[in-house]
Amino acid sequence: MSHVSSTGVASPLEASAFFEAQLKFRTDPADLAADLLAGEAAEGGSIVVIDTRSPAHYTEAHIPGAISFPHSIMSPATTQGLSRDKVYVCYCDGIGCNGSTQGAYKLAALGFRVKELIGGLHWWRQDGFAVATGSEAGVLLEGGIACAC
């Protein structure tokens, strides 16, 4: 018997619902970069990119346009100034870090619309996208590797 199918296989309807849900909760570096290049994170745009790591890690390297908002300080008081009309894309170091998950959970629990960046800063860099350094958000000026999807 196949190892792949030994634990069962979802019906097409179940699989469709599952994968649709994943797309509602996560985004990838190429899609985020496309939105950044299109100005979706600029003033008046529809998304806000949040670096959920410490300010020191943000200063070392961050996604251009991201704001530093460590998940450890997210609360009703610290989120008062956030717009409820935006979609917040949270990221951290990468797959071995759960800071983006914690940040997305906290924001969602407070009533904000959120997505998590798959692979965090690690996959962002792996896909060839530039990073900004220092305390300023910066702006993404060009794309990285074109998605082969």
UniProtKB/TrEMBL annotation:
Gene3D superfamilies: Rhodanese-like domain. SMART domains: RHOD. Residues 43-133 form the Rhodanese domain. It comes from the Bacteria. This is Rhodanese. The lineage of its organism: Bacteria, Pseudomonadati, Pseudomonadota, Gammaproteobacteria, Aeromonadales.
